[in-house]
UniProtKB/TrEMBL annotation:
One of its GO terms (cellular component) is cell surface. It comes from Fusarium napiforme. InterPro entries: GH, Glyco_hydro_5, Glycosyl_hydrolase_5. It catalyses: Random hydrolysis of (1->6)-linkages in (1->6)-beta-D-glucans. This is glucan endo-1,6-beta-glucosidase. Its EC number is 3.2.1.75. Keywords: Carbohydrate metabolism, Cell wall biogenesis/degradation, Glycoprotein, Glycosidase, Hydrolase, Polysaccharide degradation, Secreted, Signal. The keyword Glycoprotein applies. One of its GO terms (molecular function) is glucan exo-1,3-beta-glucosidase activity. Belongs to the glycosyl hydrolase 5 (cellulase A) family. The keyword DNA repair does not apply. GO terms for biological process: cell wall organization; glucan catabolic process. It is an enzyme of class 3 (hydrolase).
């Protein structure tokens, strides 16, 4: 998450990214694609992962659960024994493996539990996106790398809880081998340079995806996992990502399908394979894919870093009302928030306590656009500990009265 450079791109509407609609026009394709998910999902073990439906995705990211970003809650970071450390890698390296493992396992128990999931449901949410690191598969970690161990048990428990409640689950390779972005704790390490864009690390990521696909299809707790994202927020506007499109995406897509073939997974129970959409700036993601069946696209939309938009209440609402993020096919706005530019976030005009009416309207404008033009949305993030600033925390924004518990009661602002 948290990309501090502004991303801007205007990309022409691409051809169909979903093989289940081979001959439809773009407008017809979008109408059908907006109805590929069912809610509420069935809770029995043989649940289908995608079905025609009319509900939009309305969800939250579980940020800082399995990949910690210290800014989200510095106190919990300290409670995990990592105060002063930049990333999970640094914390494990400096605290020692055994101590770090114990501390992180305690964090996984504390951070998201069944009470959180019940609260999400009470707010009308139907989807969770779970950021994961490649080190969840512990034999992929080489001797020079340092990450907490034991996370799979907690992920399995979480997915079981979520499936029991009928929540749709997106699993996201958020922290890739070698780091896909420099100096970003969301990769699990504060790496000064990127190392992901190499055959060695592509192969490790693909092995992780194969392993995760097998788990999803063979463990009942994962029955509501319907989408697997190949990598979160790769570099943009950089030649390094040429190999991402040419090599990694095709090999990763084929690897997932090959696992499903071996397991004899039926067509209506296969995973949607998600990639960052064209608006992210890493090129057209389907450029080198020979098959695009059951693909989906991820868009991250933070006006906070969009310098093309005037920084005013009126401009933000106007822009959000008309914000069409669907350029490639079935798209989910997988990260967004109510955060505003650093230079104004502490001013009276943007104060989260005195400007609640504006933030409600802006939230409504974004929901309007993401549900009109895309499959829906996943807010970043479920919870944070930023004092009285709820702009990154869905839970706190609801408790503050900014986001209504009944999303269908949002004011019409567009």
């Amino acid at each position: 998450m948290l990309k501090t450079t502004f991303i801007t791109a205007l990309v022409a509407l691409t051809t169909s990214a979903s093989a289940w609609l081979p001959d439809t026009e773009p407008h017809a394709m979008n109408e059908r694609d907006n109805e590929i998910f069912v809610y509420p999902l069935r809770t029995e073990p043989n649940n289908k992962r995608w079905l025609p439906a009319t509900k939009k995705m309305r969800g939250v990211n579980l940020g800082s659960l399995f990949i910690y970003e210290p800014w989200i809650d510095s106190q919990e970071w300290a409670n995990t024994g990592c105060e002063g450390e930049k990333s999970e890698f640094d914390c494990v390296l400096n605290k020692g493996q055994d101590t770090a493992d114990s501390n992180f396992q305690a964090h996984w128990k504390r951070w998201i539990n069944q009470t959180d999931l019940d609260e999400m449901l009470s707010y009308g949410l139907n989807t969770i996106r779970v950021p994961l690191g490649y080190w969840l598969k512990e034999d992929l970690v080489d001797n020079s790398e340092h990450f907490p161990k034991g996370g799979l048990e907690y992920l399995t428990q979480l997915c079981g809880w979520a499936s029991d409640r009928g929540l749709y689950i997106i699993l996201d390779l958020h922290g890739a081998p070698g780091a896909q972005e420099p100096n970003q704790p969301f990769t699990g390490q504060y790496a000064p340079t990127v190392g992901f864009y190499s055959d060695y690390n592509y192969d490790r990521a693909i092995e992780w995806l194969e392993w995760m696909t097998d788990i999803i299809h063979t463990k009942k707790e994962y029955r509501n996992v319907g989408m697997l994202e190949l990598v979160n927020e790769p570099l943009n506007w950089d030649k390094a990502v040429d190999s991402l499109r040419k090599t990694y995406y095709p090999k990763a897509y084929s690897a997932i399908r090959n696992v499903e073939d071996k397991l004899k997974v039926t067509s209506n129970d296969r995973l949607h394979i998600q990639v960052m959409g064209s608006l992210w700036g890493s090129g057209k993601p389907t450029e080198f894919l020979s098959d695009t069946s059951l693909t989906a696209f991820d868009d991250h939309r933070y006006l906070k870093w969009d310098t093309s938009v005037e920084v005013s209440h009126e401009a933000y609402i106007k822009k959000s009302c008309s914000d069409d993020r669907n350029t490639d096919g079935p798209t989910i706005v997988g990260e967004w928030s109510l955060a505003v530019p650093d230079e104004v976030e502490k001013t009276d005009a943007w104060n989260p306590q005195t400007q609640k009416e504006f933030y409600t309207k802006w939230f409504s404008a974004q929901v309007h656009a993401y549900e009109k033009h895309a499959l829906g949305w996943v807010f970043w993030t479920w919870k944070a500990n930023l004092g009285d600033d709820y702009r990154w925390s869905y839970r706190d924004a609801v408790r503050a009265g900014v986001i209504p518990k009944d999303l269908d009661s949002l004011p019409s602002v567009c």
